[in-house]
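tokens incoming
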């Protein structure tokens, strides 16, 4: 979609002609150029690219945490100009408060809401149950594995019932088995909560496994190199022919054809 065109009725999020510059040693450095993305409600979008292509910057602009120099982001018909409860950012650093229990950590995002203490507890418990930690509500972060801590962070994000969940390398610090487990959990949670998700990742396989559509970004400056819809079912067979087809398609985009891949990618 081009700048100035009418809104697509199927669009839940519109990223329209986003351009971003940073000052570097007194000079203006172009980081993102003419980024256009349309996202439907309940879709999972993966933004994939090498380090330095502006993935996290784009995610921050979509969430209202960082202003663009040009263009705008429309979320459910309203322009995003600042952070709001409509979108929540989830990082690889879980951000749990060590002196608060699982329940109290999840309640944290609801403490400035209009809910009563009883309503906050009830809503928090619903999302703790959704991530499968209802038997851990009184434990503290130090008593949980890394995977469990990330599930608490997901429950806390979802408890405020945002329209959009933004995830910046959320599973990057986990070992392979925990990462696979949480990817499956995220698919289950997304299906139940019907949340729209944008996930930034370096991991080609993770992007294919989770996303309805992959935005492949190039760099210098950051731009959309290609959009790849993933049409087959979820959960996907990592060893299947379809999975390997998409994997090769993406690796070819980065000209990785049997050579040792760059360290920025987890393949």
């Amino acid at each position: 979609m081009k700048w100035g065109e009418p809104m697509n009725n199927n669009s839940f999020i519109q990223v329209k002609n986003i351009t971003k510059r940073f000052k570097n040693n007194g000079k203006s450095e172009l980081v993102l150029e003419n980024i256009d993305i349309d996202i439907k409600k309940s879709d999972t979008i993966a933004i994939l690219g090498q380090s330095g292509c502006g993935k996290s910057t784009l995610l921050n602009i979509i969430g209202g945490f960082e202003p663009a120099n040009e263009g705008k982001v429309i979320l459910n018909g309203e322009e995003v100009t600042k952070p709001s409860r409509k979108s929540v950012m989830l990082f690889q650093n879980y951000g749990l408060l060590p002196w608060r229990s699982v329940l109290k950590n999840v309640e944290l995002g609801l403490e400035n809401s209009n809910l009563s203490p009883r309503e906050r507890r009830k809503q928090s418990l619903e999302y703790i149950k959704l991530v499968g930690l209802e038997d851990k509500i009184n434990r503290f972060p130090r008593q949980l594995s890394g995977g469990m801590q990330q599930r608490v962070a997901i429950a806390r994000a979802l408890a405020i019932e945002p329209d959009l969940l933004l995830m910046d390398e959320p599973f990057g610090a986990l070992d392979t088995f925990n990462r696979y487990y949480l990817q499956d959990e995220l698919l289950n949670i997304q299906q139940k909560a019907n949340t729209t998700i944008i996930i930034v990742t370096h991991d080609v396989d993770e992007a294919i496994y989770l996303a309805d559509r992959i935005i492949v970004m190039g760099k210098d400056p950051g731009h959309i190199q290609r959009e790849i819809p993933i049409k087959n079912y979820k959960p996907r067979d990592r060893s299947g022919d379809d999975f390997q087809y998409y994997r090769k398609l993406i690796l070819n985009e980065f000209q990785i054809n049997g050579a040792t891949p760059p360290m920025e990618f987890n393949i």
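note: Residues 1-7, 257-267 have pLDDT under 50 and may be disordered.
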